[in-house]
Design goal:
Order of helices and strands: HHHHHHHHHHHHHHHHHHHHHHHHH
Oligomer: single chain
Structural class: mainly alpha
Radius of gyration: 22 Å
Number of domains: 1
CATH topology: Growth Hormone, Chain: A
CATH class: Mainly Alpha
CATH superfamily: MFS general substrate transporter like domains
Largest sheet: none
């Protein structure tokens, strides 16, 4: 593998000039407006994949006081995101096959909007957790389907489009972390208002997907609409793996039509390595989003500054989330990038342990670089499978398994913080987890595909 072009075109035998354009499920070039809507939808959706979490992290102390939470319960609250991502993310491929990826993402954005509107006023910890779970369900299915949509609409630009939506995701994460406290103050100091305001951004993300949902019933032209309907009928009649891939939004190539009916993803060592890598980087990310502002506040940093420090950590992903995927697709092995990010994480945790307030800005920058393991993991999902159907299956497996792995981390940090009376032990745990993250990341970065390993 020498680059992005090689990876994304291995299943084709010849490229025509029209193949350079984004394609719809029927295989014909899409209309320009539909392509633009997809790009807008990807960006707006990515902006909404983290504010529900980082806005809560910025106001965690106020929410704990308002709802009467202990440290352990607050740790449970920070563990809810990966739990929901694991439980609901695994449903995404099946939902996409039945309703189409655009419809599922549209519904996901609507769920985020509803959950963010309800949770501050649900009354009590149980209601708050339930409404949060609704919003996180929408985030979960969108998390899984973003690589699928990128592979489907932009097969020749996997790295650049993954970088674009990773940048948007990082931007939404950092803006929510930085702006939540000032917005709360501007809205009268109520934490309920500070959390509710992010529902408006989620509502805006619903709009671009609505025309694309309608487009699923008919393609860009009447001819392609007829072809799409015929393809759907054939898929229902035969139930072959190739037709199932078409229903999932990826037109199979002749090579894909000769593949086995089902990809045994659990037989692939690369899939397992990628899942564990995803889980460990998610553990670090959710501990950071849920607890880092509190670490700085306990070290004597003002609340507003602590929110800005969290925002700095998140905003590092904006430029790097665009650079890292493009670099990763040009390397035969992504292991060196994994190691470089891990070393930054170890340095950041060491700083938090020895001088949390004195070098706060430096530690925030280093941990921000380390958290860019997330766009790297997403890029490797697109590179470790040959077909769109394979990417969908690998994305669901890696993310669902990974988020299951990450569930105990934030909860354990809360328990250790409350039992030890300080942040020394939790930070030591975070640093220790960075070592296996680097090991499995190097294994996941090797130049091979899950189809090859599953067949072997």
């Amino acid at each position: 593998m020498t680059g992005e072009e090689t990876r994304t075109t291995t299943s084709t035998t010849e490229r025509t000039p029209a193949a350079a354009a984004p394609r719809d499920p029927g295989g014909t070039p899409t209309r320009a407006w539909a392509t633009r809507l997809v790009v807008v939808g990807i960006v707006l959706s990515a902006l909404n994949l983290r504010p529900a979490i980082t806005s809560l992290g910025a106001l965690l102390e106020e929410v704990r006081d308002g709802l009467g939470m202990s440290g352990g319960v607050a740790g449970l609250l920070t563990s809810v995101p990966p739990l929901c991502f694991a439980v609901f993310g695994v449903m995404a491929p099946r939902l996409a096959r039945r309703f189409g990826p655009a419809a599922v993402v549209c519904a996901g954005m609507a769920a985020i909007t509803t959950g963010l509107l309800i949770r501050p006023y649900a009354g009590g910890t149980a209601g708050f957790l339930a409404a949060s779970a609704l919003a996180l369900m929408g985030i979960a299915v969108s998390n899984v389907l973003m690589p699928v949509i990128v592979k489907r609409w932009f097969p020749d630009r996997v790295g650049s489009m993954t970088g674009l939506y990773s940048m948007a995701l990082a931007a939404g994460t950092s803006v929510a972390a930085a702006a939540t406290v000032p917005l709360t103050d501007a809205l009268g100091g109520s934490w309920q208002s500070g959390l509710t305001v992010w529902a408006a951004l989620a509502a805006a993300a619903v709009l671009p997907w609505l025309p694309l949902v309608r487009e699923r019933g008919g393609a860009s032209t009447p001819a392609t609409g007829t072809a799409a309907q015929a393809t759907g009928t054939a898929a229902e009649a035969t139930g072959t793996a190739a037709d199932a891939a078409e229903r999932a939004g990826e037109r199979p190539t002749p090579t894909e039509r000769t593949q086995p009916p089902a990809l045994r993803i659990t037989r692939s060592r690369t899939a397992w390595a990628l899942a564990v890598f995803f889980g460990l980087q998610a553990t670090a990310a959710y501990i950071t989003m849920g607890w880092m502002a509190q670490i700085f506040r306990d070290a004597g940093v003002p609340a507003g500054t602590a929110g800005l420090l969290l925002a700095v950590t998140m905003v590092m992903g904006v430029p790097l989330a665009f650079v890292i995927p493009r670099l990763a697709t040009r390397l035969p092995n992504q292991g060196p990038i994994v190691v470089a990010l891990g070393v930054c994480g170890l340095a950041g945790y060491a700083g938090l342990y020895f001088a949390p307030a004195g070098g706060a800005w430096a530690w925030a920058l280093l941990l921000g670089v380390s958290n860019c393991a997330f766009p790297l993991a997403l890029t490797m999902v697109g590179m470790r499978a040959r077909s769109g159907a394979g990417v969908a299956q690998l994305s669901a497996f890696a993310q669902s398994t990974g988020y299951l792995i990450s569930i105990p981390g934030p909860l354990l940090v809360g328990v250790l913080y409350e039992s030890s009376g300080g942040w020394g032990v939790p930070i030591a745990l975070m640093a220790a987890l960075m070592v296996p993250q680097m090991v499995v990341g190097v294994l996941a970065g090797r130049d091979r595909t899950v189809e090859e390993e599953a067949a072997a």
